[in-house]
Amino acid sequence: MNKSITYLLWAVRLVAAIILLQTLYFKFLAQPESVYIFSTLGVEPWGRIGSGIVELIASVLILIPRTSWIGAGIGLGVMAGAILSHLTILGIDVLGDGGYLFFLAVVVALSCSAILWLTRFEWVPILLGLRQSLMGRKNVPTATH
C-alpha cells in the first residue's frame, strides 16, 4: 500500500472513530438528546446503552489496522440503522440540531465505506474463502438408502 493510501486510510479511520467515541458521552451519561432519540424509537434505555457498546467496539476495531475492516463493517451497519431511523421516524432535524446528528451518521457511514473499500484486499479473500467452504459443505454427496 503506498503512502498516500495509508494516510487516507488513517484519516478516515480517525474520522469514524473520533465521531463514534465522541457520541458515547451522550449515550452512556443519558444526556437528554440521546434519551429523547431512543425513547422516540421505543428502545430506551437498552437501545441507547447497547448501541453505545457496539459503537465502542467498532471504534476500537477501526483503530487497529488488522481489524479496521471489521470495525468499519460494524460501524456501517450501526450508521445504516441510525440513518434509516432519521429518515423514517426521527426526521433529519432532531430537537433543533439542524440535522447535525444526521450529518454525523452520514460522515461515519461514508468513512466506514471508505475503510471497507481501501481494505478490500484484506477481507474479500476471507469472505470468498468462507463462502467456498460453506458451499463445499452443501455440495458433499450424501449416502441414500
What is this structure's SSE topology?
Elements lengths: L2 H26 L3 H9 L5 H18 L4 H23 L9 H19 L1 H19 L7
Helix pairs in contact: 1-3, 1-5, 3-4, 4-5
How would you describe this protein?
With 145 residues, the chain is an all-alpha fold. The protein has helices spanning 3-28, 32-40, 46-63, 68-90, 100-118, 120-138. Helix 1 packs antiparallel against helix 5 (100-118) and helix 3 packs antiparallel against helix 4 (68-90). The longest helix has 26 residues, at 3-28.
Helix segment tally = 6
Overall pLDDT metric: 94
Q: Give a quick account of the main beta sheet: strands, pairing sense, barrel closure.
A: none
Strand fraction: under 5%
Provide the low-confidence segments as ranges. Answer: none
Secondary-structure-based class equals: mainly alpha
Order of helices and strands: HHHHHH
Q: Which range best describes the helical content: under 10%, 10-25%, 25-40%, 40-55%, 55-70% or over 70%?
A: over 70%
How far apart are the termini? 55 Å
Number of strands: 0
Rg from alpha-carbon coordinates: 19 Å
Quick one: overall form?
A: globular
